[in-house]
Design brief:
30% of the residues lie in helices and 24% in strands. With 493 residues, the chain is α+β, with helices and mostly antiparallel strands. Helix 1 links the parallel strand 1 and strand 2. Helix 1 packs parallel to helix 4, helix 1 packs parallel to helix 8 and helix 8 runs antiparallel to helix 9. The longest helix is centred in the middle third of the chain and has 25 residues. It is globular. Bound molecules: flavin-adenine dinucleotide. Flavin-adenine dinucleotide binds next to helix 1, strand 2, strand 9 and helix 8. Keywords: FAD, Flavoprotein.
């Protein structure tokens, strides 16, 4: 089989990306070194924008039916929660869903779209040639493709092979997690009262997460022992909550690094391969999914031959700042935690936390931070409406009474050009039909910042490409969707 894109790594980022590429008709292959899907879940949360992007593709229900929602989330473990219900979204909540389930659902989607996931196949080298990338694997013959995307986690071989730097700071602090099959019956409630994070998992397991002042300088590479974990709980809470029968013990750290660039020629990186940080406020997996959503349609455009100049490079320009911002906010959170554990800083930092708690009680402050952690506030570009996330607008589409909102129009992964009824005769976009869906809205409920526009061009990832007058829409299209009819399906560019 000819392959346009090789995705290295079948974690959440790689699976999401493979699905997006396949949806756009790209021939994609996923290579994964693990023989079978992982059963251990590092991440437990999907935040609002992640659910929204699943809604954009019509698969949000698959996730929602497997998890449970909570109305908000925390920042640095402060008492005042971030209120996601106040955000301008139909998905104002965090979904508790174990990473293994998220991956299982995404893998189902990838297979439905006809993509092969080659498990037990480790990528050992990546080499760029002028017109292709060669990927060596063990076992197996070398493979060639037009592009390779490293979704192969924090130690990414793909990133290293492409010579992309991974700048930042080394680990200075570690925490421990433990999944236990047996605990005291009221352990979760009791742990909360002691400020220890405890979460019920599937199959009757309970996860405990601790940062123990006596063990927080132990390197992440050092395995956790059951006895160490029990002692840490006892030191922190005065009880071990009856934990027994550990199923998974792991140590994680606050090394914080960002790829120097997200693209080097025919090689790109996404997810943890592009950014790592302390798992504060549960943002890593979510950020990776959103990297994939941003990259998928752009890389597809490049492979298909219709990408306008600079489109593929806009992946770096748009997503690197997001990675940088997430890394920064996790560092702030880590500091607010770590310094409470250092005796000489404890009092002033507790005072600082109390002050921040008070500030989070101010609606506008809370909403700002909630928008950032949930990624609902992610806006690309220079702050103009272009680049902003388009909410799921209520609208009525002429001739399609079943469509009552925007997102179902994006299920196929194409751009959507909406013009109001008065501008329906302002030119025909059907020459772009392979990548643009054009509809006429008899009514819509536009957000205030788009007031006055009577046409919108929404990108496949649900961000705004352009808003303006209906009779200018055909001029705006090539800037984003390329020349009409320019699909060169077999091109290896
Ligand atoms: C304790 C902890 C808790 C966390 N909690 C949350 C949370 O609640 N919410 C959240 O959003 N994030 C959380 N995270 C972060 C989240 O787990 C990661 O950000 C996420 O797994 C990244 O996904 P990924 O697909 O980019 O990389 P990974 O999940 O690391 O997947 C990479 C894949 O590539 C494969 N691979 C690697 N090298 C090769 C190779 N050479 N050849 C072939 N395959 C290869 C690996 O086997 C793996 O399957 C947490 C992290 C930790 C440590």
């Amino acid at each position: 089989m000819h392959t346009d894109v090789i995705v290295v790594g079948a974690g959440p980022t790689g699976l999401m990306l493979a699905a997006e590429l396949a949806l756009a008709g790209v021939r994609v292959r996923v290579l994964e070194r693990r023989e079978s899907p992982t059963r251990e879940s590092r991440a437990l949360t999907l935040h609002p924008r992640s659910i929204e992007i699943m809604d954009l593709r019509g698969i949000a229900g698959r996730f929602l039916s497997r998890g449970r929602t909570v109305p908000g989330w925390h920042f640095a473990g402060l008492d005042t929660r971030l209120d996601f219900t106040a955000l301008d979204t139909r998905h104002g909540y965090t979904l508790f869903l174990e990473q293994a389930r998220t991956e299982e659902i995404l893998e189902g989607r990838v297979r439905e779209l006809g993509v092969e996931i080659a498990r037990g196949r480790e990528v050992t080298a990546v080499r760029q040639e002028p017109d292709a990338v060669v990927v060596e694997t063990a076992p197996g013959e070398p493979l060639r493709a037009a592009y390779v995307v490293g979704c192969d986690g924090g130690r990414s071989l793909v990133r290293q092979a492409a010579g992309i730097s991974f700048d930042g700071s080394d680990e200075t602090l570690t925490g421990m997690l433990g999944d236990f099959a047996a605990t005291d019956p009221d352990a979760v409630r009791a742990a909360e009262a002691h400020g220890v994070l405890a979460v019920p998992l599937e199959g009757g397991l309970t996860r405990f997460v601790v940062v123990d002042p006596e063990r927080m300088r132990v390197p992440a590479a050092e395995p956790v022992t059951f006895e160490e974990f029990r002692q840490a709980l006892t030191r922190i809470a005065g009880t071990d909550f009856g934990v027994a029968d550990p199923r998974w013990l792991s140590r994680f750290g606050n090394a914080t690094r960002l790829a120097g660039r997200y693209r080097q020629g025919r090689v790109l990186v996404a997810g943890d391969a592009a950014h790592v940080h302390f798992p504060a406020a549960g943002q890593g997996l979510n950020t990776g999914l959103q990297d994939a959503m941003n990259l998928g349609w752009k890389l597809a455009a490049q492979v298909k031959g219709w990408a306008p100049d600079g489109l593929l490079d806009s992946y770096d320009a748009e997503r690197r700042p997001v990675g940088e911002a997430v890394a920064a906010n996790t560092q702030v959170q880590t500091l607010l935690l770590e310094l409470t554990l250092v005796p000489q800083y404890r009092r002033p930092v507790l005072a600082l936390r109390e002050m921040l708690d008070g500030l989070l009680g101010i609606e506008e402050v809370n909403r700002r931070l909630a928008a950032s952690v949930s990624a609902i506030g992610t806006r690309y570009g220079d702050g103009s409406p272009a680049g902003s996330r388009v909410p799921d607008l209520a609208l009525s589409v002429t001739g399609r009474p079943q469509v009552e909102r925007l997102y179902p129009l994006l299920h196929g992964g194409r751009f959507v050009l909406i013009r109001t009824a008065g501008h329906a005769d302002a030119g025909d976009a059907s020459a772009w039909a392979d990548r643009v869906e054009q509809v006429t809205a008899s009514a819509w409920q536009a957000p205030p910042e788009l007031d006055g526009a009577d046409a919108l061009l929404v990108r496949p990832d649900g961000h705004l490409a352009w808003a303006g007058r209906g009779d200018e829409a055909l001029e705006a299209l090539p800037r984003w969707a390329g020349a009409p009819g320019a699909t060169i399906a077999e091109a290896v560019r």
